[in-house]
Specification:
CATH architecture of the largest domain: 2-Layer Sandwich
CATH topology of the largest domain: Tetrahydropterin Synthase, Chain A
Helix content: 55-70%
Structural class: alpha+beta
Distance between the termini: 151 Å
CATH superfamily of the largest domain: Band 7 domain
Radius of gyration: 50 Å
Number of helices: 10
Number of domains: 4
Strand content: 15-25%
Largest sheet: 3 strands, antiparallel
CATH class of the largest domain: Alpha Beta
Strand order of the largest sheet: 3-2-5
Length: about 325
Amino acid sequence: MSSPILGTFLRDAKMFRVLVIGCLLLYTQKKVFMSLIFSAITALVSWLIFLNFKSKDNINNNQLIKSLALLIGVLSSAFFIVKTISRFALIIPAGEVGVKETLGKVDSQTLNPGVYLVNPLTEVETYSTRIQDLKETVDSTSKEGLGFKLDVSLQYRLDPQKAGEVFQKIGTENQQQEIIISRFRSLIRQTTANYNLMEIYGDKRVLIAQSLAQAMITELQPLGFIVEETLLRNIVLPENIQAAIQSKVAMEQETQKIELEVIKAKKEAEKKIVEARGTADAQKILSEGLTDKIIKLKAIEATQKLAESQNTKIIIIGGGQDKLPLILNEK
């Protein structure tokens, strides 16, 4: 644009300069309601300039100003229409809830996922109700005062019914996380200080996680949060302590192995004793049941079977001891 045209533009377009200032205010306002006001003013001024502005000095300048006014009027009108509709119709997506604030007053009733018609003066703050996984690595100490690092996870979510209280007492999701992290770290140190290092590193990890979860429930439930679970992911010990613990664990495992072998040997010995007693009892019962008559009967039966054999040649009746048949084989 040449200098004469620019001079004419600045001299004859005072209303247009007001229009430009309105556009700047429109896009620099943070509050939606103020943006609506400025968008309406900008659109109105733009259309008035487009319909009524006439430059007496330069026709080309007249067309340029009208074109710019038309462009700004269309954009401002579209912005005003979209924002106006959005002020009356609100969509809360799945996995979130909304908290209404009207002129500084917070509504205790939360908005669940869905479509709502709201007051244009009402601001709606949305919060996620999905499970959040907070991972922390904390320097802690055991009951003996030994230091170690602990990797812990806290899984929690916002209580939808208490979203209004959280908005009033704490604020945004970033502010919520700051509060939760500080309390989480403090409770981790308090919990581990009640246990020996071997217990933390060994068989009481689940119990420690449960104790920590209960402590977090006590702390966070009044604030409006639901604790799902706490997890002890990893324990990082100093190298000398870790080597000593591993050596002790190896010795305990070896001791347990020896104890199992001793128990096994005792069981085998008891088994042999029981078997021997059973054999002795059986022989005793058998000897008590063998009378002379039974022995003679069994002898006669055996003699009869031998007599029927093809190898038997001579049988002497009553010739043996106890008058039993005597059998002679021919050679």
